[in-house]
Target: Aldehyde oxidase/xanthine dehydrogenase a/b hammerhead domain-containing protein
Amino acid sequence: MPDARDIVADSTLPTYQASAQPPLASGKVRFVGEPVAMVFAPTRAEAEDYAELIEVDYDDLPVYADVDSAQAAQGDLLHEQWRDNVFVTLNADKQFDEYAAQAEVVVRRKIDLARQCMVPMEGKAVLAYWDHQADQLVVVSATQVPHMIRSVLAQCLDLEQGLRAAAGRVVRGLAGQDLQAAVSLRRGPPRTPARGRPLARAPR
Model:
C-alpha cells in the first residue's frame, strides 16, 4: 500500500543501535534456535510432518559466545548497519575516574556474570485449542505469567475469564515449560477462519 508507513519507536539514547526483529530470520541467523520457517496446518501432527520436510542450508559464520570476542570483532558485525557489536553503552557515573584518582587504594577485578536472556534456550511456541467438553479456549505457553496471559486474552477476545493453570519444570526462576492458561468461552468460540480446528505453530 503506497500510504503505509513503518511505525518506529527507537530510543533517544546517543549510544543506542536499533535493529529489526522479524519473526523469521532472513539472510542471516544470529543465534542458535532463531526460527527460520513457520508451518500452518489443520492439525498439530500435520504441521510437525510438514516441518520435518524443511531443509535449510547454512554457511558457517564466526561465533561470538562471549562479550569480549563480540566487542573485539571488527569486520563481522551481528547487524551490518551497526558500527560495532555493542547494543548500548550506559555510564552510571561519569565522575568515576576523577574519584578513583583520589582514592588511596584501588582494587581492580574483572567479573564474568552469567547471561540473563530469554533467548535462545527458551522455546517461544504457543499452542491454542478449543476444549469442547470444558467449553474453554486452552492456551499452552512457556510463560511465567499464566494469569496475565489469561487476563489479556480474555480482554482481547471479549471473553469471560475462567482459569485453569498448571506449572511444571520451572528452571532457575525462568519461564516454566508446562504452564497452561485457560480462558472460559461462555460466549462461544472466537470468530476466526480456524474455528473449531486446532492451529499449531511449529518453529524450526
